[in-house]
Amino acid sequence: MGVCSIRTYEHEDAEALWAAARESVGEVSRWLPWCHAEYSMAEAVEWIRSRAPLAAERREYTFAILGSDGRFLGGCGLNQINRIHRFANLGYWVRTSATRHGVATEAVRQVAEFAFGNTDLVRLEIVCAVGNDPSQRVAERAGAVREGVLRHRLLLHGQPVDAVMYSLVRGA
């Protein structure tokens, strides 16, 4: 095993997800509003409970990121799957204490490997807010191609923000 591995969420991950989110509010909540100061254990439990049905319906695939020691490091996955044009959004986050160790980059590579090996998707999009430099560096290190800036592409905390679009494509 390398720096990390991914696997589907298990019910037992709720406490680790909750703790990682609470640890990371200062860095993550700006970009991912679900990660807020009042994030509760009930929210973590419900989120994990809702993942398996979405995967069974092929609507989303979400994964826990684990360190080589089994420690919960964050989450990643595919959502907003477009079955007609065969593309999806690839998202990721890593707990604050595990950043800057290549975890997110490796997780992105593993999600892409899953997508291109287990689905018919031909394109994965990574959409990062313009100011989210760490996430953009992850996309670039994972081999994604920067395609441009999309005006008002994301809505963060009720405000439209520009975003950078990256892509990974099957066979490239």
If you had to describe this structure to a student in words, what would you say it looks like?
By secondary structure, this protein is of the alpha+beta class. Helix content is 33%, strand content 35%. The protein has helices at 14-28, 41-56, 103-118, 133-141; strands at residues 4-8, 61-67, 72-82, 87-94, 123-129, 145-156, 159-169. The mean pLDDT is 97.
Give the overall form.
Answer: globular
Class of secondary structure makeup: alpha+beta
The fraction of residues in strands falls at 35-45%
The radius of gyration over CA amounts to 15 Å
Biggest sheet statistics: 7 strands, mixed
Please estimate the helix content. Answer: 25-40%
The SSE string, one letter per element, is EHHEEEHEHEE
Q: What is the rounded distance between the termini?
A: 24 Å
Spans of 5+ residues with little confidence (pLDDT < 50)?
Answer: none
Taking strands numbered 1, 2, ... along the chain, how are they ordered across the largest sheet?
A: 1-2-3-4-5-7-6
